[in-house]
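Moderator note: this is an archived Q&A kept for reference. The question asked for a predicted structure of one protein chain; the sequence and the answer are reproduced below.
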Amino acid sequence: MSSELNRYFIRLSYLGTNYHGWQTQPNAVSVQELLQDTLGLVLRQKTTVTGAGRTDTGVHARDFYAHFDTTLSATEVNDKQLCFKLNRILPPDIAVSDILPVSATAHARFDAVSRTYQYFIATKKDPYNANTAWLFERYLDIGAMKKSTEILFKHTNFASFSRSNTQVKTFDCQIMKAEWRQQDHLIIFEIRANRFLRNMVRALVGTMVDVGLGKLTPEAFEEIVLSQDRRNAGYSAPAKGLHLFEIAYPEAIFVERV
């Protein structure tokens, strides 16, 4: 075994219902804590995992990445065997799908070029998505909500949808995709951007639902964006409907296995 550290990305998914978000915190169970402890147990060395971002309590991730360093080489870290061992120990609502060797400076959070979120609204009661969608049985004007998404592409400052007292250098986000669509009894909002502010997607959804209810017009929605004031936007949609759907990275950071 070499003393040199090698870096790997770990790809995973999880249901956030039973966790206080991704990040380790005192007196609460988090995904990061469980993954870190399990990885250290399997590798037989203390291991720290750094996530691609923070998901709040109850938020889910269909595609999440974290990185970790180990003295084990790519030959010693057999991705299939390691995934198998981790999944045998981790609870059923956390699953590891891949272990990927990356360059020594690759960073799960800072190297991401885009993130995609989906938000699920259920229009009728369904036990199968009780913990993964917001049950909302009132009529929503999807056409008006779609007009609101068109407004997002015209702007970059989304301070109106950021959690208050957030310490960030900029409120600018480049929206790459934003759409509402309906599949059977699910209404799905999908949004992709180069970065997101804390609570941004849930605040956007809550405000656009007000548009769908006729409480706001698309024009009023744009005025909220322009105000750059969170007090003008709507409530945050419940955490359980939010899913981190995809994270994209540049191919250059991945290393081929020998």
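Archived answer notes: The chain has two domains: 6-110, 114-245.
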